[in-house]
Every structure is written in C-alpha cells, then in structure tokens.
TrEMBL record:
Residue ranges occupied by any 1-deoxy-D-xylulose 5-phosphate reductoisomerase C-terminal domain in the UniProt entry: 120-203
Organism the protein comes from: Microbacterium murale
Annotated ranges, domain 1-deoxy-D-xylulose 5-phosphate reductoisomerase N-terminal: 4-57
Top EC class, one word: oxidoreductase
Pathway field: Isoprenoid biosynthesis; isopentenyl diphosphate biosynthesis via DXP pathway; isopentenyl diphosphate from 1-deoxy-D-xylulose 5-phosphate: step 1/6
Family to which this protein belongs: Belongs to the DXR family.
Protein's name according to its UniProt entry: 1-deoxy-D-xylulose 5-phosphate reductoisomerase
Amino acid sequence: MRRIIVLGSTGSIGTQALDVIRANPRRFELVGLSAGNNAELLGEQAAQFQVEDTAMGAQESEQLVRDVEADVVLNAITGSIGLGSTLAALKAGRTLALANKESLIVGGELVKSAAAEGQIVPVDSEHSALAQALRSGTHDEIRRLVVTASGGPFRGRTRDEMAAVTPAEALAHPTWAMGRVVTTNSATLVNKGLEVIEAHLLFDVDYEHIQVVVHPQSIVHSMVEFIDGSTIAQASPPDMRLPISLALDWPHRIGGVGRPLDWTKASSWDFEPLDDAAFPAVALAKSVGRAGRTFPAVFNAANEQAVDAFHEGRLPFLGIVDTIARVVDAHESPDQLTIESLAQAENWARATADRLIAQQ
C-alpha cells in the first residue's frame, strides 16, 4: 500500500486524485492534504478520509511534505508557488507525482539536480502518454516527441478573429474541465508551450525534436516517433483519472479507472499543424526553454499577471502573449540559477508585466 500526500487537494486534479484513492482503499492510504484557500472543502476531505495532517498555503504545504511520512507526493498546486513543495518532496526522497508543471519549468536544473532517476512521474496527460510510449524503446532510439494539443476553443481562428474574445469564451474549453489559469493557458496555447519545456526537462530531448500537433478529439494524448519510422501513441477517452492513477502507482496500472475506447464504433481522428502565426506562444516557449536560466520563470510569471489582467478586463486576449513576449525580450538573466535569482526574476517579471499592462 502506498501512502499518499495530495497538495492542492481542492482543485481539479486534487479532487480527481481523491476519487482514485477512494476507489482503491487497498492500494492507497491518504496521509496528508493541503489546499490554497478552500478551507471548508479541505476540512470535508480530511473528515471523509480521516486525515489528521492538513495544511493551508504554500509554506505549510512544504512543511507537511517534510513532516509526514509518505511514499508519493502529488503536487497539484497551481503556479510556480509550488516549487518549494516540489523540492521538499524530492529532498525527502518521496516519489513526486507532478501535476504542478510550473515548478519544474521554473526550477529547471535546480529540480532536475535534486531528483533521483525515476523520482519524478508526470501527471499531465501528454507527459504521461509520452512516458508510457517511451517504454517501447531506448532513449537513443527516439526521433521525436509529438505533443498533441486540442487547439482550445479558438482552434482554426486567425489572430484577427481572436482580437475581441471574452474571458467567458476563453474558459469554454471543448474537452477538459480545468481551473481558470490552466483553461486560459489552453486557449492561448501558453499551456502547450509550458508542456514543451516540461517534456524537454522530463525526457532530455532537444527542442528541435519536440513537435506540437493539433488533435481536436483529445483521444491521442501524445506520441513518440522512433528512428525506425514507427510511432507509438497512447490513446484513451479524455479522463485525468487515468494519468493520475498511473502517477500514484507508477509503473503499475489500476483496473477500471477509466472507460476504454469503443473500437466497434466508427470514428475518425484529425491531426493538424499548429498555426504559429495565430498562436505564437509555443515558439516563444521553445526560445525561452533554450535560453534557460531564469527565462522560463519570467515567461511563467508574466503569463500569470497577464491572465489575471485579461479576466479583470484590463488586457485584451491577444495582449496576454504579447505582454509575455515583451517581458521576456526585456529580461537580462543572471548566469547562475538559484532560488534567490528565481525569486528576483519572478518579482521583476510581475512588476514589468503590470507596468506594461497599465500602459495599454
């Protein structure tokens, strides 16, 4: 039986993780819970699972990870504020089920150097799919990683056609039910850009060998193309409980977590090239990833400020990625990546983004 701590238990990933744990009481024991601000729901979850160790906020979450004996820490905190918990889990020797992609992207080599081989297991459906497909070959046999994207609610629109979209439209994702930030990031494809950086860091594949392809059905969650010309794809109906369950008990599979595809019914899957002119966030993220050091932290922090401004009516939709690009372009990164330089870069990026937004 694996002892599990769930950080961000009141969010979308966290609540679905509790569904998986609830359905498999002989496989998992929930020993710790944390939330950002929903104290009422956190209390209800703790009572239901009879969990005594709970925490509110980022710092208390880090302390929970240090103090509570556990085998797996699921980090489902939203945003780079989850970096401390990621590092705490790795230092404590826990398996890190990583849904908080921002902590890896922002922390970069700090996180990678803290992790033992196999200690980080991805929760994102795309990276879970890649991890599953990569079991079919060695690292030297990889030709490229193909990360699929639904295209979000504005797939097929030109840049001009997205000039006046509203927050409500941006939150109307055609496939996934997620929080405000992640759903907006999916509409701008910033999320896909972050996932490309995450794929590079998780699987040590160069950016020129990572491709994004639009797949609106969201059935094929990602693919690995090997040097012999074969491609291994992971396909399943869109349900985050599947990659969550794999991450909690990696590399073992749990029966009955999700429904399988019905191969007796006719269906078709579409794959389309990404329109970089309409959605420049992926190309921008690749350049940021190549630059490394504090650039990914600046990219992520500027995006968080811009997303808030968009939903508060202070910035148009297209202004989100435009603001990120301007902040990144103005950034001068220190030569060495440290916790201190990350904090300084993030603070600078947020202040710069706020200033640029106020000028619009």
